[in-house]
Every structure is written in structure tokens, then in C-alpha cells.
Write a sequence for this structure.
């Protein structure tokens, strides 16, 4: 279930109870989002729940600068914080691996250069660039459906289309466009 505009507005005004309810309603989707974006090596070192909590702490600190009450806009706000946090943690892990490799006289059995982390970040970057190329409203609706499991009725409202079926078709076209852009930007044909 999507958080209401009223709940977002109350949290923006500094209502801690509303913020707690808002964050609780988005814990599961944010946990899934981060689980899918954090490389396996990083997930082995950190609990995804710790990342989720850190995203909420950062979001609460920045609530005054968030100026919209739309559930799609708020999800985008959280995604941005989560994505930046994931990139920061991956960078720290890469530096740690490089430091370990420099200190050791022999190679580590794991990829010392963090190839899996770099590859994961590169795939994420392709996805984010493909999403960014979409119309803002379509991108928001797509993220509502894919990441917040919003109903096609909610997506239709976000898109301003007449029916859930029209929303489903619009999202199918958007997904096809994202896949096409990712493929063309990666240089790999699927």
C-alpha cells in the first residue's frame, strides 16, 4: 500500500509519529530495493536492514528540503538517498580491498580489484540512466509499480490515464524502452 499524501505532508512538517509510520510503510520495499542493488560482497559485510535504517536517518535529516507530497516523489527521494549510500559503501569496500591487496604478498582468492562490485555498479548505472531518459511521470509510475508494488489503479492515477489496462500498457512500453536503452548503452546484445 502506498503512503498517503497526508502522511508524507505530516512527516515533512516534522511530525515524528507520521515519519515513523511513513518509514515503516516503506521499509519492505526499500529493503528489497537495496538487496537488489548491493553487490553480494557488500551484503556479506552489512545487513541490508542497517542500510535501510541509515537511509531513513538521512531522509529524516533532509525532510525539510523535500518539497512534494506525492508518494512517487517521496519514493524517488528515498531511492536517491539509498543509491548514494550504496555507491558510498561500495567505494569504501573497493578501497578496503585495494588496501588489503597492497598489504599482502600474495593474491586474495576473492577478486582483489572488486570486479563484482564494479560490474554491479556499472549495471546499476545503465539502469538509472535508462530510467532517467523516461518522461518524469512515466518514470515515477514505473517505479511505483516495480519497486513499491503499486496497483495498476494507483499507476493509472499517477499517469493520468483512463484505466488500469492503459497504465499496464504504458508501463510495458516504458520497460521495453528501459531494456532497449540499457542494451544499446552497454554494447552487449541480449
Amino acid at each position: 500500500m502506498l503512503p498517503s499524501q497526508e502522511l508524507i505532508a505530516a512527516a515533512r512538517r516534522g511530525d515524528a509519529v507520521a515519519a515513523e509510520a511513513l518509514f515503516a510503510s516503506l521499509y519492505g520495499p526499500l529493503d528489497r530495493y537495496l538487496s537488489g542493488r548491493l553487490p553480494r560482497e557488500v551484503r556479506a559485510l552489512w545487513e541490508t536492514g542497517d542500510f535501510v535504517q541509515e537511509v531513513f536517518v538521512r531522509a529524516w535529516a533532509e525532510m525539510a528540503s523535500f518539497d512534494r507530497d506525492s508518494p512517487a516523489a517521496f519514493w524517488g527521494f528515498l531511492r536517491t538517498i539509498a543509491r548514494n549510500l550504496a555507491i558510498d559503501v561500495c567505494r569504501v569496500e573497493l578501497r578496503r580491498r585495494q588496501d588489503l591487496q597492497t598489504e599482502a604478498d600474495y593474491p586474495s582468492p576473492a577478486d582483489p580489484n572488486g570486479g563484482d562490485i564494479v560490474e554491479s555498479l556499472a549495471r546499476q548505472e545503465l539502469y538509472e540512466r535508462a530510467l532517467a531518459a523516461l518522461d518524469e511521470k512515466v518514470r515515477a509510475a514505473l517505479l511505483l509499480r516495480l519497486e513499491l508494488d503499486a496497483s495498476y489503479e494507483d499507476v493509472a492515477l499517477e499517469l493520468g490515464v483512463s484505466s488500469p489496462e492503459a497504465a499496464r500498457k504504458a508501463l510495458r512500453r516504458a520497460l521495453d524502452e528501459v531494456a532497449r536503452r540499457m542494451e544499446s548503452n552497454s554494447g552487449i546484445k541480449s
